[in-house]
Amino acid sequence: MTDTLNILADLIAAAKKGGADAADAIAVEATSRGVSWREGRLEDVEGSEGEDIGLRVLIGRRQAIVSTSDRRPESLKAMVARTLDMARAVPEDEFCGLAPEELLLKGPAPALDLHDPTEISAERLGEMAAEAEAAARGVAGVTNSDGGGASAGSYAVTLMTSHGFAGAYRGTSFSASVSAVAGTGTGMERDYDFTSARHYADLKGMADVGRKAGEQAVARLGAAKLKSGSMTIIFSPRVSNSLVGHLTGAITGTAVARGTSFLKDQKGKPVFAPGVNIFDDPLIVRGLKSRPFDGEGLAVGKKALIEDGVLTGWLHNAASARQLKESLTGHASRGTSGPPGIATSNLYLAPGALSPEELMADITDGFYVTELIGMGVNGVTGDYSRGASGFRIRNGQIEGAVNEVTIASNLKEMFRRMVVASDLEFRYAVNAPTVRIDGMTVAGA
Fold first, then answer.
1. Locate the Metalloprotease TldD/E N-terminal domain: which residues (predicted)?
2. What is the tens place of the pLDDT at every residue in 378-390?
3. Interior angle at CA 403, CA 401 and CA 404, nearest 5
């Protein structure tokens, strides 16, 4: 990474020499390899490599960003000149600028063990995908496969600013997935399973992945509709995390500043039921979204977004913090072709005290949701309406499959009624345990 740091330092120095008041530069290098496997044979092998550099120049209250994948000296020199010219021509933005120097990460970056040097060949990836698909096809009732796949990738992020920050980190990712088909004709059903990890050794077994995909597809056979009405909904962990995602979209500083958030006036107020806690933790060792610093070079740490049901505040980068006259939170994100955005890292809904079985024990007639369809969520009003499929709950027990159902409510009401189970697992970028919400509207038969 030393060569990349030198390139970024030269870009910033050239920008300052050309008249910039401040500047930052970011480099992202990534490689990936993946295979697709279907019906017992190799279908495709893909690979990619990329190196992108982005330069942001600030002249007064004007900023411009230019990116390139060409590291030749003459190309980088032309990029600096082009960025300076653009910065002089664009309108002023009173909120743009680098993050405060006193908040930058000082000293060594936290050790998060994000990089695994294990080399996985295309042949091995093919074996992984083949094993997962074979296990899925071996489940009684599975009639076909939508294919499986496996991939491995690595990346490096290097960031430098003109006011003293320089940092870099590397990461890897490994994954495998399979989709199984059960039944025939118009009665066919599909389902999937996957595994992903920073380190190859942390992946689930391929046979387990395939078997679960097959069993889930078979369980969906014979699906029926529900009658329309009010019903208790149980969100399984693979869909409950979407509810947490809707929260973060509503508490970014940019959404609040624009007035386009259904929670814009709820800071410091109870938004969820008492006992509900939601955290963002970028420092989880081997976390799928861990990072030692944010997209503006700030030190980062674990933050409670919801504490005992109360909304603690907004997510900020430097621009939104200036606009709302608040402190930064270490949530700046960054690509090579645009200004800093806002994003969470390892976001999760903390587990509750009840097991999933206890959570649904008193439900006489309910709906256990395992899949959500469509994007019928209004971020301004909080209105929620999505297609769903899953299983009927009768007298506290999960029974026959259900599909072609719409569930609806408003996120404000859903958050207040949320009851959280104890089965939290970290499988995604956003994680949540099983969640119960009473009184939602179901539109079915």
1. 23-87
2. 999 999 999 999 9
3. 165
